[in-house]
Amino acid sequence: MSSAPRPSVEPAGESGASIPRHLRYTWDHEWLVVDEGNATVGITAFAAKALGDVVHLRLPEVGSWVEAGESCGRIESRTAASGLYAPASGRVLEVNPALTDDPGVVNAAPYTGGWLFRLRVENIAGALTADAYAAHCAHTEGDRR
Length: 145
Description:
alpha+beta; six-stranded antiparallel sheet; three-stranded antiparallel sheet; 21% helix; globular
């Protein structure tokens, strides 16, 4: 298996956040990029920042089936824990081996080295564009005030 693609990061939306424009996003702050029917999945920089320092990951098993929108793992930081939701349905092909020894890569490089898993896509849930995701983040940040 090859490593995840290295996206260019461009501003999207009025929030000024750097959100890779070629990725698709979920309401739960996961991202995916599909290449030849295989998707690379991760969490967004927004989610990584909100969680804080990631210290443990429970990722889906290679060969397991994940269902779009359903829980498929868990992310734990020093201060919080969050479910991981599949942005698409499919069979898990690979998990990121670099995260076993250093789950903090998710914080340092959420769109590159911090990718979580790859799957053979059968169905993609209602994925958001970069602009729609930026608007969602701006609204979510507004809810915190």
